[in-house]
Design a protein that fits this description.
The N and C termini lie far apart (64 Å). With 279 residues, this protein is an alpha/beta fold. α2 packs across α5. β1, α2 and β2 form a beta-alpha-beta unit. The strands form 2 sheets. Strands 5, 6, 7, 8, 9 and 10 form a 6-stranded mixed beta sheet that branches. A 4-stranded parallel beta sheet has the order 2-1-3-4, with helices on both faces. Helices cover 41% and strands 16% of the residues.
Amino acid sequence: MKANCSLLVLFLSITTGFSQTEQRIITAGSAMTETVCALGLCDKIIASDRTSLYPAKIQDLPSIGYRSSISAEGIISLKPTLVIAEEFYVDETVLAQIKSTGIKLISIKRSYNLEGTKNLIREISLAVNKKTEGEKLIAKIESQIAEANAIIKKSKTTPRVLCVYNRGTSSIDAAGTKTFSDILPYVGAVSAVTGVDGYKPLNAEAMIAANPDYILFFESGLESLGGVKGALEIQGVTQTAAGKKQQILAMEGIKLSNFGPRFGEAVKELTLLIHPDVK
């Protein structure tokens, strides 16, 4: 109780003379940040977390930290009128402390599929009074996915894709369900691995057994290997269909993985990459 009272005093002291009509938004989670920006309110964001790297100008703002390092005091001191956080990204105790000061806070549950993206956009657009803009954004995503579906229908293949998350060669994991590999059903592909929930270390034997047609990296991950040449040096890769044909792909990691407002763009981009038979 004493801690909550102290936080309330802090909040009231720093908001004295502050215009109640001015929006000051703090976001926690890259998809939260991107969505606020896509709704036309990027200039209302005063701080964000370390995963929020897009749009690039967000990186010039104060950082509230990353997951367990995020504190209530740090957020309150920035005088936000609204905090938008991805569910489970910020400690529940921290969120409770923020709410106790009277700051408006919404915590958004994530589902890594189209419906989850639409719900994310609708929840945020409602909170920032941009409902019309939110529906237009959803319509754009649905249109991009429809364009991808048209390509898929013309394709004669259903490629097996191995989604890989890595940091150089020291940590190489296969991405299973509840990761960015959940994009595969939307691009006319199937995962080259089954029975993997989250991420699982990838060795040569597992790579050969998966035998993907394509191997998909984050751009940053592939760069850390030295590009396609470095990826081909991973044990087992050259013994797969992807390795033999050098079908090594990379996309911007945030766009590929956060299922945010650029989800439709990511779907269309990946669809074109893995269905080159469709012109």
